[in-house]
Design the sequence.
């Protein structure tokens, strides 16, 4: 499955924005203008961008720490991310949170969930999001991100196992970038790869070249379709490489030069750029113009972030409990607890939802899974690891 | 016997909330076919369906994690811990997700995690703990402790309707006690969170308590009354946010206060209550605020050991007499 031409260019554009924003953040960090760590997704831009681009408008996205591009695909301005890193009061969390720890959920069910630092928890929380999507009868899926590090935690296991038992509309993208901070995968698990581990949960499993943005897009699309048919969850392993340290303070000396060189030749932006040229989707002039435009846009966004106000120390309290004043603009639900949910909030009646939930269980009440063969396509990049 | 037991009151609260609001659903282990470890949800899955009474694998972490996600999406999950001891397995989604989402990004997480806590049934170290103070230091959570059947129903309904995450402590030692049967008030019986209840009025001494310990406190108060000593018994009911006004008013009235609870004294929530009383009623006090809890050991199994561990009516009575003589 190949995306339409305008989307193939769009995928490249969002990767470009992602990289430019991170380059700008790197400069701001050197100028001493960032607070806290800078967690880059250099070399992994295709995964956040490709997976978010493949989603439906009403789907929910659950990012990890290296899916920055998804925020832009989902409509957030770069200045919001830059303000977060600068701890600005004008930022999306008014200085209460750091880096990509922000998000939004709308009463109609779409949105992006603010991650926390315990990354394995995202899959377990997104299991509940997908449960709610089905409960409300929404024609939507949840795309949750994990990785070779996060997948070692118990929260991944308990969340994903529950999602599989319940056949929830959940796509889990597992970025295998070779390293959990400074620990290589062979000290994290003994199985061949994340796909082999995921297969044990009994759900469909895919493996893709995580540096190929169109492959990530296509896999997410397919996984989404499987989920909408009620045959989810789906686990997609995306093979990639983290091209910098865990954060800016980490020089990643533990990674060999040969390994980095091999992966540098497979840079996701360069790959997609060359493909657009080779296949006549865009001309050199088109892309050069886009690159200039993105660079100028990101610079303007950074200027806007720099001009944003610092947090008012008086806002340290408030917004912990319902009803307390908060510096955050809270998009509250349009009804109170005492009322019924408004018309349209539930898209299906209870009987329909119940029949969908009950369907996978046979008359004896025993789990009766269809057999899902595990035969992932080995990516060309795998041998270079 | 008329009225409802504590357990039946919990069941009625869950049933009424399931009937009232389609957003409310139950999630936990063995809730459906088995009817729950204590049979509170017996028959619920037949009536409300598998999507509203969700059976899960043995996975407290997964249950509460999923409840967080569903609550973020606007549902009202009520997650059951078969024993409240197991909530330790779900620490991260409660402490780092449920408690913090509103402060961090403006999204409330209206969920309830409920289950039986406390000793008195020889459950041993992992089926008898009182874990409330683990969570009292986490801004964003509410902690509720019901000691009577009426309160169990009314507080649980309030917890389910609350916009914030609530840890709801029930007490298995009280679940089926016939002497705690009570008639429920008619209609929609809701007890607002954050309000203590003076379970017995008195003039000479105050004992502040919650949970199972309320009952030995009431027994001790009856014994002291025979000797002409009048004890006021304040049931805190909600630990976070707790009702300082009612407690301080009582302390100013009686001038001598004991705080009694089942959890170990060291680091127990009683320390917070005692500290607040000395801050706000120091000039009225005629004695230091005393605390009575369990020793700093795990809760032991054997009946004789458990009895020695838990604050009972005799020890509470002794502490009150000592305070009276001060």
Sequence:
């Amino acid at each position: 499955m190949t995306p339409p031409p305008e989307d193939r260019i769009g995928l490249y554009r969002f990767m470009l924005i992602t990289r430019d924003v991170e380059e700008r953040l790197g400069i701001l960090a050197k100028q001493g203008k960032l607070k806290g760590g800078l967690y880059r997704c250099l070399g992994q831009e295709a995964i956040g961008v490709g997976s978010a681009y493949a989603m439906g408008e009403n789907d929910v996205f659950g990012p990890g720490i290296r899916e920055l591009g998804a925020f832009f695909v989902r409509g957030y301005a770069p200045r919001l991310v830059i303000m977060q890193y600068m701890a600005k009061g004008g930022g999306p969390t008014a200085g209460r949170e750091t880096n990509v720890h922000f998000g939004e959920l709308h009463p109609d069910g779409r949105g992006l969930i603010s991650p926390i630092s315990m990354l394995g928890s995202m899959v377990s929380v997104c299991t509940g999001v997908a449960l709610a999507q089905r409960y409300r009868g929404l024609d939507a899926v949840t795309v949750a991100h994990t990785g070779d590090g996060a997948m070692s935690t118990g929260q991944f296991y308990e969340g994903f196992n529950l999602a599989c038992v319940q056949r929830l509309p959940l796509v889990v993208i597992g970025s295998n970038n070779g390293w959990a901070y400074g620990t290589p995968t062979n000290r994290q698990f003994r199985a061949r790869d994340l796909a082999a581990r995921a297969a044990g949960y009994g759900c469909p499993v895919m493996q893709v070249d995580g540096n190929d943005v169109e492959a990530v897009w296509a896999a997410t699309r397919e996984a989404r379709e499987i989920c909408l048919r009620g045959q989810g969850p789906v686990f997609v392993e995306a093979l990639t490489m983290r091209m910098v340290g865990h954060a800016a303070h980490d020089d990643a000396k533990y990674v060999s030069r040969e390994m980095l060189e091999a992966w540098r030749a497979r840079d996701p932006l360069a790959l997609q750029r060359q493909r657009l040229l080779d296949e006549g989707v865009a001309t050199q002039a088109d892309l050069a113009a886009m690159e200039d435009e993105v660079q100028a846009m990101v610079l303007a966004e950074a200027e806007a972030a720099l001009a944003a106000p610092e947090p008012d120390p008086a806002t340290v309290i408030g917004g912990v409990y319902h009803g307390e004043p908060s510096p955050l603009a809270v998009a509250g639900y349009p009804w109170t607890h005492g009322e019924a949910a408004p018309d349209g909030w539930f898209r299906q009646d209870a009987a329909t939802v119940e029949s969908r939930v009950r369907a996978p269980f046979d008359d004896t009440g025993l789990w009766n899974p269809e057999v899902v063969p595990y035969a992932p396509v080995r990516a060309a990049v795998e041998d270079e690891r | 016997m008329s009225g409802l037991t504590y357990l039946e009151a919990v069941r009625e609260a869950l049933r009424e909330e399931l009937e009232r609001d389609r957003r409310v659903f139950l999630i936990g282990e063995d809730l459906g076919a088995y009817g729950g470890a204590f049979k509170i949800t017996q028959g619920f899955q037949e009536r409300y369906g598998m999507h509203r009474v969700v059976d899960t694998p043995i996975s407290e972490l997964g249950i509460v994690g999923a409840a967080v996600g569903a609550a973020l999406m606007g549902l009202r999950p009520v997650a059951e811990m078969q024993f409240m001891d197991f909530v330790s397995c779900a620490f991260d989604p409660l402490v780092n997700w449920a408690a913090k989402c509103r402060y961090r990004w403006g999204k409330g997480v209206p969920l309830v995690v409920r289950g039986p806590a406390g000793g008195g049934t020889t459950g041993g170290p992992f089926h008898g703990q009182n874990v409330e103070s683990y969570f009292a230091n986490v801004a964003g959570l509410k902690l509720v402790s019901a000691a009577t059947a009426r309160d169990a129903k009314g507080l649980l309904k309030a917890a389910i309707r609350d916009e914030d995450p609530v840890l709801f402590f029930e007490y298995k030692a009280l679940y089926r006690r016939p002497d705690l049967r009570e008639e429920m008030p008619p209609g929609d019986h809701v007890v607002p969170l954050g309000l203590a209840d003076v379970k017995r009025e008195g003039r000479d001494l105050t004992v502040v308590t919650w949970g199972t310990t309320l009952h030995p406190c009431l027994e001790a108060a009856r014994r002291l009354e025979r000797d002409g000593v009048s004890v006021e018994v304040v049931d805190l009911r909600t630990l976070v946010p707790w009702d300082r006004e009612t407690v301080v008013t009582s302390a100013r009235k009686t001038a001598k206060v004991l705080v009694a609870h089942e959890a170990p004294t060291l680091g127990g929530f009683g320390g917070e209550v005692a500290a607040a009383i000395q801050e706000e009623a120091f000039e009225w006090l005629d004695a230091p605020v005393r605390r009575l809890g369990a020793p700093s050991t795990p809760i032991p199994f054997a009946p004789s050991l458990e009895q020695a561990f838990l604050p009972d009516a005799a020890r509470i009575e002794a502490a009150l007499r000592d305070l009276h003589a001060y």
About this structure: Chain B has two domains: 6-180, 197-325. The two ends of chain B are 43 Å apart (CA to CA). The longest helix of chain B spans residues 6-20. Chain B is about 40% helix and 20% strand.
